[in-house]
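F.,

This is the one I mentioned.
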């Protein structure tokens, strides 16, 4: 099998992983804003996400000569290594729950803030655990200041979300006042607008136009009318709560994968080699796939957050956006695989530098979805500081990379 052994190769894997992991949430957001049910999107995503793990296992996992210390993928499937497999599958379960929560968090708090909070929690908790699991091969004097930058980014991201909410509220108040002058009758202001559940009512009351200027209240209402998950009227804490839960799930999957591949707790027999990255990723993806299928099919019939009911038959016939959802699964699958390949070589704590993918997500959020257009100076200031924290953090975490000793 192919092994990444050099520090340079590990960093290359991290950079490519960072781009892939930063792009797939943007695809999710695009589909949700076009009105596609998240259950349908996630089912498509789940299938190709697992397919990516299979492709990696049968390519990189089968390259080269198989040895007793480093058996190829198919040989390792026949070995008695269930303790490590269970660690890998536990990691897949928490990742699946995290990704499932993320698709709803993206609608509530936006692409940028969701990515920043979830990844920062992942680094603060997960990187600290990986540092000790990896027998401290990373430079602590460099690593933990990087973790501190991520923690600061969480604070700035929460402030950014709150500031952006205030900006939107001010826009709706201005819109309401303008409509009062225009049609001479009482029009609901922002807080009352949020209580309107039917998009047609919003259009009738405010008379929105088809081509609203980006960043205006009319533009925000048009987005709300089209999207699958209606967020107006929902508490800010609902979105942040979902986001923090996703972050806690993400913080555990990398340490679990670390235990699966390096057996720090010595659960395997002495004559059984450690799971390779590719075998562990295969089992990791199986549990991720199974959990996602069970939960999303149940959500078709018992939807959450007031989403419309659907059915498995309706999902099968929904081809609008299926290609994009499938692409998101491949991006995430290969992104996770590259992260693990780099982490096995340079330490999983350093590999958590890929959690700076909100830098990529923010680019997509501003370019594709026009997030923060026509916002206040305070909002722009918080956005810039948050991004600077991430730029510093990714550089510092990569600089802490070590070299894992081969057995």
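My design for it:
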């Amino acid at each position: 099998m192919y092994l990444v052994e050099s520090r340079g190769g590990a960093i290359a894997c991290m950079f490519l992983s960072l781009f892939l992991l930063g792009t797939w949430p943007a695809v999710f957001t695009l589909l949700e804003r076009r009105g596609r049910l998240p259950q349908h999107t996630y089912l498509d995503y789940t299938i190709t996400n697992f397919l990516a793990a299979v492709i990696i296992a049968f390519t990189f996992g089968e390259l080269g000569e198989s040895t007793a210390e480093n058996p190829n993928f198919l040989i390792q499937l026949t070995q008695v290594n269930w303790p490590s497999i269970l660690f890998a599958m536990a990691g897949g379960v928490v990742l699946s729950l995290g990704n499932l929560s993320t698709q709803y968090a993206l609608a509530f708090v936006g692409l940028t803030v969701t990515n920043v909070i979830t990844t920062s929690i992942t680094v603060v908790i997960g990187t600290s655990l990986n540092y000790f699991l990896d027998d401290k091969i990373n430079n602590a004097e460099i690593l933990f200041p990087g973790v501190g930058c991520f923690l600061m980014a969480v604070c700035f991201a929460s402030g950014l979300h709150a500031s952006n909410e205030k900006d939107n509220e001010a826009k709706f108040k201005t819109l309401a006042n303008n409509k009062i002058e225009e049609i001479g009758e009482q029009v609901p202001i922002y807080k009352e607008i949020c209580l309107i559940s039917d998009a047609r009512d919003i259009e009738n009351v405010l008379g929105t136009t088809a081509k609203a200027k980006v960043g205006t209240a009319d533009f925000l209402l048009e987005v709300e009318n089209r999207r699958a998950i209606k967020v107006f009227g929902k508490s800010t804490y609902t979105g942040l709560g979902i986001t923090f839960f996703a972050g806690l799930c993400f913080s555990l999957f990398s340490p679990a994968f670390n235990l699966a591949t390096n057996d720090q707790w010595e659960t395997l027999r002495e004559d059984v080699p450690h799971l390779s990255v590719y075998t562990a990723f295969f089992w990791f993806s199986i549990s991720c796939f199974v959990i996602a299928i069970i939960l999303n099919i149940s959500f078709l019939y018992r939807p959450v957050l007031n989403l419309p009911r659907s059915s498995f038959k309706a999902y099968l016939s929904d081809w609008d956006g299926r290609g994009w959802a499938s692409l998101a699964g491949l991006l995430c699958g290969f992104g996770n695989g590259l992260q693990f390949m780099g982490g096995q070589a340079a330490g999983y704590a350093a590999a958590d530098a890929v959690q700076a993918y909100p830098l990529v997500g923010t680019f997509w959020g501003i370019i594709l979805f026009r997030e923060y257009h026509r916002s206040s100076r305070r909002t722009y200031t918080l956005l810039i500081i948050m991004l600077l924290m991430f730029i510093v953090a990714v550089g510092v975490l990569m600089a802490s990379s070590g070299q894992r000793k081969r057995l």
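Residues 7-65+79-165+236-375+390-399 form one domain.

Talk soon.
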